[in-house]
């Protein structure tokens, strides 16, 4: 059994590492999944681990116990440390052990945030599955996001030398779940073309690059910006494949627009469109209205909202679109921040000074209070340099003042023309955003100030 801290190989009967004394993973006797040393139940199959510490009884043939393999749609990731051979020649083995251990820990923590499954550590490489043992509808997206996150996180690992990685991903059908090998060499193997393609693409990737094939590109749509690598020859495949380098997350906020593959007619939604139209007419008359569109995934909620938005293109109104994300449900006011950045005209490559200038112009155009700028600047992570005094508020008071500023901005827009606010994927909204949205819909509940009461409805 290999210690993930120092990479020392240990006997299968050991419970603590012979090299560093750290607790070793606790293998499940039923499925072979490596669990935390203090775990009571297996993270792979959920069975009790009361017998896991005992040496496994060898079968008559000496072969590993059969475990039910599954045919799965998988996204497989290979992550490799760049220049590890040269690094090994420059560092003492003990120092190298610490560097590799810190690198593995960084990768593991990043993968865990996106619910990936680390199948195997291979020296300076890591093999990761998305879609096994637990499948998600957005496994390909999770894999790409985690690849970009690994590139950024590994750069920040505190080591004597800067660490860099390269990542290859591939998506497709595979058979996964068979346990092969024994002891420290045991792993849950994946069989099929997908892992081979991921390994080849990782070899093609440059330093700090994430490379994906066309099959994965189709699944993640325009959620990311790409650079086409054209057709590339891949060893073992009869014909070239089209590959892409993932540059960054796309600025497009709407997941619906980013993932849609074509325009489909809206059929059988006349009654819903008519209801939305009646509520819009009431809102224009000064009686604000809120409509919740709910239903099963894929039923057409976003398509309905988009069709209604398109029906209002000829009418004077202000559109405010707020996009919630499953990857930012712990980020306070994430949808409001995104909407405010788009309204203020922020660009990805803007310097802090340029962003502050744009924010000042936005404040002036919307006739907000003078004290709102430092609050909104802090919300948008824009340094105010020496133009404005630092905020001296308690966290609760700062939150209340920020709510007031955002509600004032909305009230100012509503006094000029009707405002259509669309919240997409509200079930992913963070608690603070839900609280502010509740004050927007029901301003009589405002207790942080009077801004909510100024809304014209």
Q: What is the string of helix and strand elements? A: EEEHHEEHEEHEHEEHHHEHHHHEH
Overall number of domains: 3
Give the helix level as a range of percent: 25-40%
Q: List segments where confidence is low: pLDDT < 50 over at least 5 consecutive residues.
A: 51-67, 448-453
Q: Evaluate the radius of gyration.
A: 27 Å
Number of helices: 13
Q: Which percent band covers the strand fraction?
A: 15-25%
Average per-residue pLDDT, rounded, comes to 83
* Structural class by helix and strand composition: alpha+beta
**Distance between the terminal alpha carbons, to the nearest Å?**
66 Å
- Sheet with the most strands? 8 strands, mixed
Structure description:
By secondary structure, the chain is an alpha+beta fold. The protein has three domains: 23-57; 67-250, Alpha-Beta Plaits, CATH 3.30.70; 263-454. It is built from 13 helices and twelve strands. It has helices at residues 84-90, 93-113, 139-155, 193-204, 214-220, 255-259, 270-284, 301-311, 334-344, 352-365, 372-379, 395-416, 431-441, and strands spanning 26-27, 34-35, 70-81, 117-122, 125-130, 165-180, 187-191, 210-213, 224-232, 241-249, 318-323, 419-424. Strands 3, 4, 5, 6, 7, 8, 9 and 10 form an eight-stranded mixed β-sheet that branches. A two-stranded antiparallel sheet has the order 1-2. Helix 10 (352-365) packs across helix 11 (372-379). The longest helix has 22 residues, at 395-416. The radius of gyration is 27 Å and the shape is globular.
